[in-house]
């Protein structure tokens, strides 16, 4: 019987892992399986561009079935419901059609080794109304929904201005959370708004967009050094973003957001990008240990504490490095590094070698303010610890992150080809996706 390795979650780390396992182990003695609730993959740091319409996800997404055929793994479309550790089985939830018809009933997949890489979900901290009134940017479908609502409101304002040029009409967007996602989305919205006048909305431009960025902490971009965060703050305000720091949202309604100061922020569209936690399913995975944030607690080898046959990686795992007080942050670079460690450890198990401990190497943080600016910090021996970068250099480094992701999931040949195609598309494709 083949040794079966099941990876649940096809994000940046999970997709890289199955590609490497499939290419290395082949199909004769091993069966590598990816279970994922979406049919295609889009790099999560790009979702703010998909939401704003400045990136056509159809050009950048990866189909799991064709990718699996190319790299030697099998793809199962479905969502994790639970696991049975005694019988070593993954329980996949029933699959339903849009009208509620059950297409595939609940079923089980055998595993010899299991890797859970389902990422994280937004943490609304129990704030009333957030689940019903706010949008999230966790996957392609949610980004598409945001873009459609944005375009609808832009059309509303454009028609109002056409009928009455003196009308006081605006599109109000409120973003909760001034980490990388919230800040990048705010800047990208102004980039998109400035281009809409070239695509049929002649009387609409960025002056008709009002964005409010709300942050509970004392400043935006807490992962960056304060001078860089201050530079980003100034750039956003120059674009027209209203920034509220040290401000908590107490409720979300159809009209907008209520703040702890007693003020109201009216909004046509509300986006929640404040904090992450583990998905609800992780809290009941046959007794596996979880943290307060509902993440799977793992050993330094990235094996779960109660079952050495089950690994966890990426945003859904919780690991405090030796000598540290805080867990590994939920970043794409951490998922990439964890995928490499899990890959080597799975090969070590099947080859009866000692397993290695995961060592997180913080390579810094970069935040893109669309075409307006890029700020960040690099860390590593080359720069002697930490180096702040801004402007063109930061933009080049930021773009290289996505190119590295393409190489990781496609290999060098196709990865380089896709990078070249991306350059061509920027020239021949429309600047905005308006459908």
Notes on the structure:
This protein is of the alpha/beta class. Helix content is 34%, strand content 26%. It has helices spanning 12-25, 47-52, 57-60, 64-71, 130-133, 140-163, 180-195, 226-239, 332-350, 391-428; strands at 3-8, 30-36, 40-41, 62-63, 74-77, 80-84, 89-92, 95-96, 102-104, 107-110, 113-116, 121-122, 171-176, 209-215, 242-245, 249-252, 256-259, 264-266, 269-272, 276-277, 296-297, 303-304, 307-312, 317-318, 364-369, 373-380, 385-390. The strands form nine sheets. It has a six-stranded mixed sheet with strand order 5-2-1-11-23-22. A four-stranded parallel sheet has the order 15-14-13-19. A three-stranded antiparallel sheet has the order 6-7-10, with no helix packed on it. Helix 1 (12-25) packs parallel to helix 9 (332-350) and helix 1 crosses helix 10 (391-428). It is globular and about 75 Å long. 41% of the residues are buried. Residues 380-385 have low confidence and may be disordered.
How would you describe this structure in keywords?
single chain, 3 domains, FAD/NAD(P)-binding domain, globular, four-stranded parallel β-sheet, 435 residues, six-stranded mixed β-sheet, 27 strands, alpha/beta, 34% helix, 10 helices
Provide a compact summary of the structure.
It is built from ten helices and 27 strands. It is of the alpha/beta class and 435 residues long. The protein folds into three domains: 3-120 and 278-350, FAD/NAD(P)-binding domain, CATH 3.50.50; 130-272, FAD/NAD(P)-binding domain (3-Layer(bba) Sandwich), CATH 3.50.50; 364-428, no CATH class.
